[in-house]
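Continuing the batch. This is chain 6 of the set; chains 1 through 5 are on the previous pages. Same settings as before, nothing changed between runs. Recording input and output for traceability.
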Amino acid sequence: MGATPPIFFWDRVPKTPHMDLLELLDRTLPGMGYEVVDVQASSKGRLVRVFIDKPQGVDVEDCARVSDHLTRLFAVENIDDVVTRLRAHGAELVGELVQYENSYRLCYVRGPEGIIVALAEQLS
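Output for chain 6:
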């Protein structure tokens, strides 16, 4: 890692502690060929800056690819039911369904075309 790795912004992120978000990113971005260098969240948790790197260096297309990947977050009700219905259409979980504090249940799902989306269920 020579120069400062490029960054991108992710808006409307669930309010999770920094380490939980970093762990969530560490589960998916390495599979795309990127290393998560750092994650910085705003004080209100509404904006996140993610620093990434890869052996060949990161360019604008890489930032766009990762940003596009991370903006596919869908708020759902009854995440277990949604995952079951998606599996019936050929989707599969990427990792596992996780819960952050008493706020959210989250998971990544890969569809039959290989597109990965994030699902989030806000808990009462």
